[in-house]
Amino acid sequence: MPEITSYKDLDVWKTNRELVKSVYQLSKSFPKEELYGLTNQVRRAAVSIPSNIAEGCGRNHFKDSIQFFFIARASLYEVETQLILSNDLAYTSEEQLTAILGQVTRCKKLLNGFINYYQKQTNNNQPTSINEILEEYGSNYND
Questions:
Q1: Which of the four pLDDT bands, split at 50, 70 and 90, describes residue 78?
Q2: How many CB atoms are located within 10 Å of the residue 68 CB?
Q3: Is residue 2 assigned to a domain?
Q4: CB 55 within 8 A of CB 28
Q5: Which residue range forms the structural domain that includes residue 40?
Q6: Domain count, the chain
Q7: Residues 53-76: pLDDT tens digits?
Q8: How far apart are alpha carbons 1 and 119 in whole angstroms?
């Protein structure tokens, strides 16, 4: 596995970037009258996920970092709800919804795993700078 030295090396960040692309592609087919409604809202929430992961990694204190990771997770749940609503409104097919919700589930698992690992490291008086945690996370990721 490649060495993790930055948030850009994290699968959790990369996978959520892929979700952003999928949300943008899917929402292109939403009705024009939704441009300033659901389309804008789901896109902004999706962009918020990898952005908050990156911002959390840029913080110097555990409490600051973890707060941004929790915000990212909340945005992920927001995106999930908005995608389900898009299906309720017949803006997406069942097949499209199933596919993108599969991505959402993968993102949830990765983000929850990252949060749990981060909390465990800081609660056990392990390295507390994000760079130290990223190094440790990267070396244990496939264990």
A1: very high
A2: 18
A3: no
A4: no
A5: 7-140
A6: 1
A7: 999 999 888 888 999 999 999 999
A8: 23
